[in-house]
Amino acid sequence: PQAWLQHEGLRRVKRAWVIPPISVSENHKRVPHLLVQIKSDKQQPGGVIYSIKGPGVDEEPLGIFSIDKFSGKVFLNTVLDREENDRFRLKAFALDLGGVTLEDPTDLEIIVVDQNDNRPLFRQDVFTGRVVEGAEPGTCVMTADATDADDPDTDNAAVRYSILEQGAGGMFSINATTGEICTARPGLDRETVGVYNLTVQAADMSGDGLTTTATAVIYLEDINDNPPEFTKEEFSMEVEEQAAGVDVGKVFVHDKDLAGSPNWLAKFTILEGDPEGAFAVRTDPHTNDGIISVAKPLDHEVRDRFELMVSVQNERPLEPAAPTSPRALATVRVRVRDVNEAPIFHENPRQVSVLEGSPPGTTVTTFTASDPDTRQLQTLTYALLYDPADWLQLDPHSGTIRTKRELLHPSAFLQGGRYIALVLARDDAEPPLSATGTLSIEIVEVNDHPPLLQPTAGVVCGRPGRGGKLLLGATDDDRSPHGAPFHFQLSPQHPQLARNWSITRFNVTHTVLAVLAELPEGPYSLPLLLRDSGTPPQERQQLLNISVCHCGRDGTCQDGVLVAASAGAGITLGALLIILGSTILLFALVGLGAARVRGRRRALRKGLLQRSRDDMRDNILNYDEQGGGEEDQDAYDINQLRHPELFSPRAKPPVRRDAPLSSASPPAPRKLPSGPSDIEDFINEGLEAADSDPSVPPYDTALIYDYEGSGSVASPLSSIVSSLTDEDQDYDYLSEWGPRFRRLADLYG
User: Fold this and answer.
1) Does domain 452-549 have CATH number 2.30.330.10?
2) In the Cβ-directed half-sphere of 64, how many Cα atoms lie within 13 Å?
3) Architecture of the domain defined by 121-221
4) Residues 6 or more apart in contact with residue 304 via CB below 8 angstroms
5) DSSP label of 739
6) What is the pLDDT of residue 131?
7) Does the chain have fewer CB atoms within 10 Å around its N or its C terminus?
8) Average pLDDT, the chain
């Protein structure tokens, strides 16, 4: 029986310690409020200490619940909100006074009962949707949904939707359960009503509880259901002739569709009346009107009126159900006003050719313009607007252009071989108009210059094949095609030259002169004939001075003088003469200085100019004189004085450089006298050899050394040696020779 009692006691304590869930309503305002009393049967009353733990007690939120530790009563201390915490799960503990656990911790669950204290809330205050105009009924636009914070398992959160206001027509409806808004009727027309504003309501308790409202804005999207229309059937405009790119006028249209959209934007087309494309039409993007403009210059004299048929349509095609417009076509009448037009040079620029060197007064061309104003009597005059070299003269009435002076080429005023001038044509209207024509004159090259040999002197070795060649070239002041290629040949007037010399073409501007037979050393003069490739060709016979030198083993000149000459083979004949003249002048000055000292000594002793009967001539040469002088100075060979071993008095006369070869066997050189006293005999022998040579012209003629005018008061210098001896000479006449001989007259008179 004791065991049974113990068992029953345990069972009773367990049943008393188990606590069922406790419900309490939210928003309960009478606090503190007793929720439940817990107790344990392990000890007598007053011997148990109770406690609770968990959210709302010692965890957040704190202080909502409390317990009397001796009685076990659990109290609610604050007002509950189910939307914040819908239940609390606590743990209950029972301890004896010594702190020993009497019972295992048990669960204490407190459930917060919901009340309808929250009204529905729309997700946004304004809902926006779009639907195309003309949409079929049942086309859904958007959903205006709301939420309720109350318990969703109760009617407190059962929301129902309705449309409170939408204007006349009732074009939209809303689903009461989902809040989806759809079209209810046909006939939505953006051009009639473009925007719909709906007031939507949401109510809980299945529509009988708390309510709230929101706004739904529905925009109708435009479709191209209205074609553009002209505001009238005819338009009239005016434009001046020759005005290209200007606007003539506007054609006005109206379209009910949404402004700025492709359904509204108009597109214009000229259907008739402009086969040449003189007009163009574009759309004003701001007003949607058509702008007529001139695409090509109009000519009043050709056509003064146009009647255009213009059509209009939208950029986007019309909807199939859209009605057609009777005002899709309009007539545009354009009148072309006559204005004064500038003259026209139909050939501009005018390109002509004039031969180089044409004399002044040569007609170049007649450069005239025409006046487009054929219905007005006007006169054109002409003037030179640009003539940089002042080469031309222009007839102001006929437009004939002639040369004022010879057209030169080359010239700094030529551009690519052409002379550019500008001609101004002006009418006599008020105000006058003018036009500018460009005249391009080609200066045609004329073959008026023969080629010039370069160089004119050279040195070759006297043996064939061993340095016996010389490269010759030519230049021509004429331009192509009157210049190269050049043709070189030995003078046809001297066929004997071909026995010793040959000419072979090297390129278009150069040739090679070669020795065919072994030649003696010395100077040679070869007449060459040069011809260019112009039309007609120009040719010139020129003299080539050749020095034939002694050949070494390697084909080079071994003689000292000729080696020096060969080093300067490219020096021209004029430069060579200057060098030789300078050398002779130096020798002459030295000789004159010595003679002056000797003469003074002799004059003090015997008198001046005591000489033998031998003829003595003082030749005064001016080496920088460009005209006059000895005609055969080029023929004098100074090598005879420099190399006396090459000449012999028993040999034949020397070969002259200014004469062609007269025989295949060259004459032997003369030997120079060993003593200076025999120089007179040497010169006389050379003179005799020159006079007796029939193959050359008589160059030893009267010479002009320095002509100073006529009427001199002095007598000839040759009178000084008119006496046989110095003792017979009378010097009194020196005082009659003028101021230049006053010093001599004072000394010897």
Assistant:
1) no
2) 22
3) Sandwich (2.60)
4) 335, 336, 338
5) G
6) 93
7) N
8) 78
Distance (Å, whole) CA 195 – CA 203: 26
Residues 323 and 345: their CA atoms lie apart, in Å, by 56
Contacts of range 652-657, beta carbons closer than 8 Å, 24 or more positions apart: 652/689, 653/686, 653/689, 653/690, 653/692, 653/693, 654/522, 654/686, 654/689, 655/520, 655/522, 655/523, 655/524, 656/523, 656/525, 656/690, 656/693, 656/696, 657/523, 657/524, 657/525, 657/545
Q: If you search the block for the tokens 């070759």, which residue do you land on?
A: 460
CA distance readout (Å), 386 to 283, 403, 578, 721: 46, 14, 49, 73
pTM score: 0.43
Q: Which of 267, 259, 261 lies closest to 314, judged by CA?
A: 267
User: pLDDT digits over 75-116, tens only?
Assistant: 999 998 888 888 999 999 988 888 888 888 989 999 998 888
Q: Name the pairing type of β-strands 350-355 and 434-444.
A: parallel
Measured in degrees and rounded to the nearest 5, phi and psi for residue 521 equal -70, 145
Q: In CATH, which superfamily holds the domain spanning 344-444? A: Cadherins (2.60.40.60)
All CATH 2.60.40.60 domain ranges in the chain, comma separated: 22-113, 121-221, 229-337, 344-444, 452-549
Query: Is a pLDDT exceeding 80 seen at residue 550?
Result: yes
Instruction: Give the CATH number of domain 229-337.
Output: 2.60.40.60
